Amino acid sequence: MGRREQARAEAAFLRGDTGVDGAATDEEQRDEAEVERDKAREQLLRGRAYLGREFLTWMLWRSESGDALVDFEGSGLVVLYTGRVILRGINGDVTEMSARGAMAPYSEQVRHSLDRGLLVHQARLRFTHGEKVYEATLDAEFLDIRAAKLPDLLSEEEDDKLMERLYLTEQLSDMVDALVQAFLAVRASRNWSKKVVPAMKSWMRGDDEAPRATKTQLARAVRG
Fold first, then answer.
1. What is the pLDDT of residue 175?
2. Residue 90's closest CA among 42, 54, 60, 123?
3. pLDDT tens sequence across 114-135
4. Helices (H), the chain
5. Contacts of residue 161, Cβ cutoff 8 Å, sequence gap at least 6
6. Using CA atoms, how far apart are residues 192 and 76, in angstroms rounded to an integer?
7. What pLDDT score does 14 carry?
C-alpha cells in the first residue's frame, strides 16, 4: 500500500468509516447521536470557528443562572463571564462588537446583538471549582486558553511550586474539555434545534421565563 493509500485508510479509520480490519462500518449499527457527536467534535477540532462561537454563546446563556454547568471530578464547575467579550458573525463576517466591563457579557446590549445574529467569539471567563478559582480568556477559533490566572499556590519549595502550577494548568485544560464535551452532547442531540435554540433566542430577546441570577448576585460572584 502506497503512502497516499495508507493516509486515506488512516483518515477513514479516524472518521469511523472503517473498522480496524479496514472494512466499512455499518452506520446503522452506530447510535445516531454518537454519529452526530463525532461529526460535531471533528468540526470543532478542525478549528471551525462557528462551532466554537456556538459553544461560547451557549455557555454564556447557561452561566447566567450562576449554577454549575458540569460535574468535574466529583463537584460542580461554575463558569462566569467576567470581562471583555467579543461578538462576531456566524460565517466569519466582518461585523464585530466588543463590550467591556465586569457585567458586560450579561448586558441587554450583548443579548440583543446575539439575537441579531452575532455569536461570542472571545471572552474572559472565571472557573470556580470547590475553593479553587481560575481565570482565562477563550477564543472560538481553536478554544485556546490565553492569559490564564491560576489559584494561589500552596507549595513553598520552588520545585513543588512548578509541579503544582503544571497540575493546575492541566486541571484548567481538563475543565474546558469537560465543558466542550457537555456542549457537543447537547449540540448533537435532537433537542438542540427543538428546545435549546428556541430557549436561547427567548433569552436573547429577554422574554424567557427561566430563572436567572439577579444582577446583584452576578456582580458579587464576579467580584469574588
1. 96
2. 54
3. 998 899 999 999 999 999 999 9
4. 3-15, 32-45, 49-63, 108-115, 158-187, 191, 197-205, 215-223
5. 153, 155
6. 23
7. 44
Integer Cα distance of 203 and 190 in angstroms: 20
Q: Would you say 145 and 176 are in contact if contact means Cβ atoms under 8 Å apart?
A: yes
Q: What distance in Å separates the CA atoms of residue 76 and residue 67, rounded to the nearest whole number?
A: 8
Q: How far apart are CA 216 and CA 224, in angstroms?
A: 12
Q: Which residues pair with 125 in a beta bridge?
A: 81, 136
What is the residue type of 6?
Answer: Q
C-alpha cell of residue 25: 462500518
Between CA 82 and CA 84 the distance in angstroms is 7
List all residues 6 or more positions away from 109 whose beta carbon is below 8 Å from its beta carbon: 99
Q: With a cut of 50, which residues of the chain have pLDDT below it?
A: 10-29, 92, 209-211
| pLDDT single digits (tens) 96-114 | 888 888 788 999 999 999 9
The Cα 66–Cα 80 span in angstroms is: 7
Q: Give the other-Cβ count within 10 Å of 173's Cβ.
A: 13
